[in-house]
Design brief:
This protein is an all-alpha fold. The protein is built from five helices and no strands.
Amino acid sequence: MTAIARRRRLKEATIARHLATLLLAGYPLDPTRCVATTLIRQVDAYLQTAPQATVEEVAQVLSVPFPPLCVAYAAVRAGYSV
């Protein structure tokens, strides 16, 4: 995401939100190209115990920077599994 953000002259959080929007809309993206599979698994595990948790709540619990967490959260919500 960092390289994309630099190339597009946007903040990394903006790129993360765009990717999250595409994932939730059903676009066939591979989130593991931007986010570690371990993070996706952590988010998935947390959402198993707290299915109504927002991305902000998950960020606080996992203490992960917002951009990668945003993509991982959207991937899990979109049904992506690793």
